[in-house]
Structures are given as C-alpha cells and as structure tokens.
Amino acid sequence: MDKTVLITGATSGFGRASVERFVRGGWRVIACGRRAARLQALTEAHGDAIHAAAFDIRDQEAMQRALDALPAGFRDIDVLVNNAGLALGTAPAQQADLAQWRQMIDTNVTALVTLTHALLPTLIARRGAILNVSSIAGSYPYPGGNAYGGTKAFVTQFSLGLRSDLHGTGVRVTSIEPGLAETEFTLVRTGGNETASDALYAGTQPITAGDIAETLWWVANLPPHLNINRLEVMPVSQSFAGFQIHRD
Ligand code: NDP
Ligand code: 8X3
C-alpha cells in the first residue's frame, strides 16, 4: 500500500483510533493536534509510518508551516480526514458564552475549510478523498446544541457542495455523521467534568472511537468509482424523540 492520509484531531477519540487503523492497514499517516506529547507517543509506537504535526488548527500560519514542513514521503496526501472539532457548553443560546461559540466556529468550520482549501490541489492531483467528520447534531436540533449543531450543519452542507464542485476530478467527499460516541468529547464540552461525562455514557452502549475508525477506513478504501455522500451512524441504544410544546 502506497497511500498517505492526513488526520486532524489525532490526539484523542476518533482521530487517534483512526491513526491506529490506517497504520495497521499499511498507510502513511500525518497525525495532527495540539497535544504534542500525545503525537510523540504515537510516533514512538509506530515509527516511520507516522509524521506528527503539532499545531493549533485555528492558526492558519502554523497550519501552513506544518504543511510546508512535511517530509518528502508524506507530501502526496491521498485522503484528508477533517476530524478535529469540539462542542463547548450545553447552555441555551440566551445564556451561552459567545467566546465558546466563536471557538467552535473557528475550529469546526473556519479551520476545516482552510485546511481543505490548502490541500485541494494535492487531492485533485491524487484523485483523493475528503472525509469530513460532521455529526447528527447537524441534522437534528436539541436544546443546548445551538452553535455546535450549526457548525456541523455547515460541515455536512460544505461536503455536499464540494461534491458538486469536484465533479469530474475523481475526488470523493463524504460527510460522516456519528451519534452518541464515548471519547473525550463530553469531557471537553463540560470543561473537564468527569462525573458529567461518565454519567452520559453510563448504562448504555455508545459508539466507540474504534467503530468510527473502522467506518473511515471502509469509506477510504471503497472502489474509486463509489462515493458515500453522507453516512449517519448511531448506536442502537440511541434513537429519536418528539418535539417540545410550550403551553401558557
Ligand atoms: P475528542 O475530544 O476525543 O477529540 C477531539 C480532537 O480534536 C482532539 O484530538 C483535539 O486535539 C482536536 N482539536 C480540538 N481543537 C483543536 C484545535 N484548536 N487544534 C487542533 N486540534 C484540535 O472528541 P471526538 O473524537 O469525539 O471528536 C472528533 C470529531 O467528532 C469532532 O469533530 C466532533 O465534533 C465529532 N463528533 C463527535 C461525536 C461524539 O459523540 N464523540 C459524535 C459526532 C461527531 P488537541 O486537543 O490535542 O488539539
Ligand atoms: C456529537 C453528538 O448528539 O452529542 O456531535 O451532539 S451530540
């Protein structure tokens, strides 16, 4: 296998599990994230198969420096996994912290389109693929989902728009939309509240990071004439509930 994947958000959750999956499949992996020590641990575990790129994805200059510094063997990127992202807070919009909204937009939207824009020439030359990690929160609103859901609706629609623009290039684009999944996501969302995070996942069987890594691996390795446009994945333990009605 002579393929290279760049995975953002590789220090935790879906991203870290995906690094392990693609390395196991024989791919070269560019692993991105802010926590350099965690990236270092991945390179120590897997050696030459991984190039660690530690930068804050919201910092466009740092992103470009990291891309410019890619070693020759890691430059021909076949697959971009836009996975880095976060939710912050669960407060209703009228009580939400604007700084948290802006951080979600900067990370989940602005950084994702910036990196995609930077890599499009390479991905077109390689007839590659873009796998965007969106969320069910982009399709189904829930109380406190406000700006986070908005960012993920953007990711899904941006993915479909890319499909249109990349028509004829051979580049594939997929929006992966997971539901409840146990990662560090809720720890981050609650500002490090382990009790709240544990409570959300207690007594049920959420998606695991490995489940989504397998999904990404499957999509990336489909025959080149097939495109999964959107893929919504939920645990069996999660389904839909009704609308809310306010009465005076
Ligand atoms: P984790 O918190 O476990 O992982 C998030 C990753 O994003 C980390 O590696 C983190 O790296 C990276 N990241 C966040 N902010 C930045 C930044 N500014 N610069 C660089 N990297 C950043 O959560 P998940 O694995 O669950 O989340 C991965 C994606 O999946 C996200 O886009 C999330 O919205 C989405 N998702 C999650 C679901 C869930 O229930 N868990 C369900 C549906 C979608 P570092 O902190 O080292 O920078
Ligand atoms: C994460 C899934 O439902 O917690 O994107 O927003 S949800």
UniProtKB/TrEMBL annotation:
UniProt keyword terms in alphabetical order: Oxidoreductase
Keyword match NADP: no
Statement: the UniProt record of this protein carries the keyword Oxidoreductase: yes
Annotated ranges, domain Ketoreductase: 3-183
PROSITE patterns: ADH_SHORT
UniProt-listed Gene3D superfamilies: NAD(P)-binding Rossmann-like Domain
Source taxon at top rank: Bacteria
InterPro entries associated with the record: KR_dom (IPR057326), NAD(P)-bd_dom_sf (IPR036291), Sc_DH/Rdtase_CS (IPR020904), SDR_fam (IPR002347)
Pfam families registered for this protein in UniProt: adh_short
Family: Belongs to the short-chain dehydrogenases/reductases (SDR) family.
The protein, known as: SDR family NAD(P)-dependent oxidoreductase
